[in-house]
Design brief:
The complex is a heterodimer of chains A (454) and B (275). With 454 residues, chain A is an alpha/beta fold. Chain A is 56% helix and 11% strand. Chain A contains 20 helices and ten strands. By secondary structure, chain B is mainly alpha-helical. Chain B is flat and about 60 Å long. Chain B has two domains: 117 residues; 149 residues, no CATH class. The chains are: A alpha/beta (454), B mainly alpha (275). Chains A and B meet through helix 8 and helix 13 of A and helix 5, helix 6 and helix 8 of B.
């Protein structure tokens, strides 16, 4: 009878990409898939589908969580045409508190491949949007997703988890920011066009670099790349005069010998009037002489140096993740308290309905003389009875809540209140009134007793 | 000249210095942010202290070594506070605030040593002008030395492939540190030049000659030449970055030497005898 949040799915840790790609949904398919899911998994009262390159998860709400999870798994298998055996080993199933914790950790980017990466929050918002669009999100999912978003924001604000550089090209751009104040007036020279070099050049462009020089083994290639990146092509055999203009040089040429030697770089430095120069060597074997780093105002980072910087910031993220887990635990506690309060909802509904029935019945009994009254007077009697009912309901609710949401006492109090106030039940079943009265009410129904503050 | 305002100023300097250093060492930018208003409070208390001192003395309160230290610490704190707030250079606090604390602390410890009365012959409008220019120049050089120290620390980390990446948003770039160093040196040089000129004019008005080769004058000329050479090397030879930072520190040690020796070892007109 108690509703539970549940999650079933696979992620980058439990399943290889070969499995994930077969279970994944494109954004455009999800709304329709949710409608099918609702039909084929009747145990689910609410559901959402998260599908990213690192995870496929069904988030749902059900009272019978075991059955709902089995239905959801069967749905995934048939809907995606994958035999169940092929992915059951990789599946994780969470219910109740564990499910909420998982959802919050995913949102806070603690479950990501690169811990702290910011995209996952947007992907979760998209999943929530799809569920809202398919009308499969209800009270619990709305609450759960909103809590997840707010904990993610708090984690981002209060910890350094998103700081640092998670990729080699990002680390290179960060380092450039440590050397140069603004990148707008700087010149970047791309020597060779490896994929990582191109990525770094693009990111530097995004950071405001205006001038980009491109040189490559084949001049045609340099011209083509210069066109896509919005730069100027320079022939490789004639690149030296341009070196004194460049503030950042990215090397990724396939060359057996270094293209830049420390010995002949001194003169370039003098011509540059010792303005700092950042050499990023992404080539293997290395493009730039390692001794260049010893020259004044020259900063040389090769691929291993950059990888070390990345590793260090990932380590920093792991330390910050500890703080993030604490924030998740706090949010989880308050969410579970709210979930426990949901237990009272069926009892409250029953009481409300039975009292409404009582009121309708009484008004019905006096239909004859009520009809004889002026409409204004009739209206007054209607509103008077409604107000009386609302006041009574308010007291009942306050009494039920005072027992403490989620505690065994609260469930008991709710049940007692339901039996006492649902008069129709007593009327339908002869002896029910006596039975209710037979409960040992005097012992436990003391709202001001010791259990009151539990 | 102790007033009740110096101890609270010192407490605030100490807390600010601790905040800046801890923020830097433990990579906690929040701690540095909290130190900024503390430094501001310290400057306020210190200003009250100097104001009361000036009212008592009837002129700028720089009549002995302790007061000179206090005045220098105050100007240095103001210059760093402005830089920290305007240029968002919290990092600078870690390199300058401990120095300010030490100098202001020394000023308080030495505070009771005999105060001198300014002879009537020197009670002139030139006194505050000349003294403020000279000390402002010194304060700018102190902060420039702090910036250079920060430059050398960050530069060596970058060279050693151990950059401070996670807190990169709060760490100024080398280019920015170098530029600020250059500007501080420039303004310090202007102040020093004006101090020398105003001193010469004052001397001419009082004693009838511009220059008498007394120790402070000689040392001022030496430091003036050194700073001129430092600025010149940047403009003509393009000496910047690490070399400029190292030279700034080297010239600064000469400045400290001249300040101490003139005040304590060869007191001429400036050192306190006011002959």
């Amino acid at each position: 009878m108690k509703e539970k949040l549940l999650i079933v799915g696979v992620n980058h840790r439990t399943a290889p990409v070969a499995v994930r790609e077969r279970l994944a949904y494109a954004d455009g398919e999800i709304v329709a898939a949710l409608s099918r899911l609702r039909q084929r998994a009747p145990a689910l009262t609410e559901c959402a589908l998260i599908s990213t390159c690192n995870r496929v998860e069904i988030v749902g709400v059900a009272t019978d969580s075991g059955r709902a999870i089995e239905e959801a798994i069967r749905f995934l298998a048939t809907d995606r045409g994958v035999a169940t055996e092929q992915f059951t080993g990789a599946l994780y199933r969470f219910a109740g508190r564990d499910a909420a914790r998982h959802l919050f950790r995913v949102a806070a980017s603690l479950d990501s491949m690169v811990v702290g990466e910011p995209q996952i929050l947007g992907q979760l918002k998209l999943a929530y949007g799809h569920a809202a669009q398919a009308d499969t999100a209800g009270l619990v999912l709305h609450r759960a997703f909103h809590r997840a978003f707010s904990v993610a924001k708090r984690v981002r604000k209060a910890t350094l988890i998103g700081r640092g550089s998670a990729s080699v090209s990002a680390a290179a751009v960060r380092l450039a920011g440590q050397i140069f104040d603004s990148l707008g007036d700087k010149t970047v020279m791309l020597m060779g066009a490896g994929q990582m070099a191109e990525l770094a050049a693009r990111q530097l462009r995004n950071m405001g670099v205006e001038t980009l020089l491109v040189t490559s083994r084949s001049f045609d290639h340099a011209v083509a790349l210069a066109r896509t990146l919005g730069g100027t092509a320079v022939p490789l055999e004639n690149h030296r005069p341009y070196l004194k203009l460049a503030d950042i040089v990215i090397g990724s040429l396939a060359a057996a010998r270094p293209v830049l030697e420390a010995a002949d770089f001194e003169s370039i430095l003098r011509e540059r009037r010792y303005r700092p120069i950042f050499l990023i060597d992404l080539g293997v074997p290395r493009n730039f002489d390692a001794r260049l780093n010893q020259l004044e105002n020259v900063y040389l980072y090769d691929i291993d140096d950059l990888a070390a910087v990345v590793a260090e910031s990932l380590g920093e993220r792991a330390r910050e993740a500890g703080k993030a887990e604490e924030l998740v635990a706090g949010a989880l506690a308050s969410f579970m308290q709210w979930m426990d309060g949901l237990d009272l909802v069926p009892a409250i509904k029953d009481i409300r309905v039975s009292m409404e029935q009582l009121r309708d019945a009484e008004l019905g009994r006096h239909r004859a003389w009520l009809a004889a009254l002026e409409p204004a007077e009739r209206e007054k009697i209607e509103s008077l009875t409604r107000a009386l009912l609302n006041k009574l309901m308010h007291r009942v609710l306050a009494g039920m809540r005072s027992a403490g949401a989620g505690s065994p006492d609260s469930a008991y109090t709710a049940e007692v209140a339901r039996r006492l106030l649902c008069g129709d039940l007593a009327a339908e079943i002869p002896g029910a009134r006596a039975q209710t009265a037979g409960l040992d009410l005097e012992i436990d129904l003391d709202p001001d007793g010791d259990d009151g503050d539990l | 000249m102790d007033t009740i305002w110096l101890p609270p100023a010192l407490v605030c300097y100490a807390l600010a210095a601790a905040g800046f250093v801890w923020g830097r060492a433990a990579n906690r930018p929040v701690s540095s942010d909290q130190a900024v208003p503390l430094l501001g409070a310290a400057v306020l208390f210190h200003t009250l202290d100097l104001t009361v001192g000036a009212l008592n003395a009837g002129n700028i309160p720089v009549t002995n070594f302790a007061q000179s230290l206090s005045f220098l610490a105050w100007l240095t704190a103001i210059v760093s506070f402005v830089l920290i707030v305007r240029m968002r250079m919290q990092v600078l606090g870690a390199f300058v605030a401990p120095g300010v604390l030490a100098v202001a602390g020394a000023a308080m410890m030495l505070g009771h040593r005999g105060r001198l009365v300014i002879p009537d012959s020197l009670r002139s409008a030139w006194l505050p002008v000349h003294v403020t220019l000279a000390f402002l120049g010194d304060a700018l050089f102190v902060v420039a030395a702090g910036v250079s120290l920060a430059y050398l620390v960050y530069e060596s980390r970058l060279k050693a492939k151990r950059p401070l990446l996670p807190a990169a948003q709060t760490t100024p770039s080398l280019e920015k540190l170098d530029r600020i160093n250059y500007r501080l040196l420039g303004w310090g040089f202007v102040m020093l030049s004006l101090a020398i000129v105003s001193g010469a004019m004052w001397a001419d008005a009082t004693w009838g000659h511009f220059w008498s080769w007394e120790p402070q004058e000689t040392w001022s000329l030496i430091t003036w030449l050194l700073y001129a050479a430092l600025l010149e090397s940047r403009v003509t030879a393009g000496w910047r970055g690490r070399r400029a930072a190292a030279l700034t520190l080297a010239v600064f040690t000469v400045l400290v030497g001249s300040f101490l020796s003139v005040s304590l070892v060869f007191p001429g007109k400036h050192g306190g005898s006011f002959g």
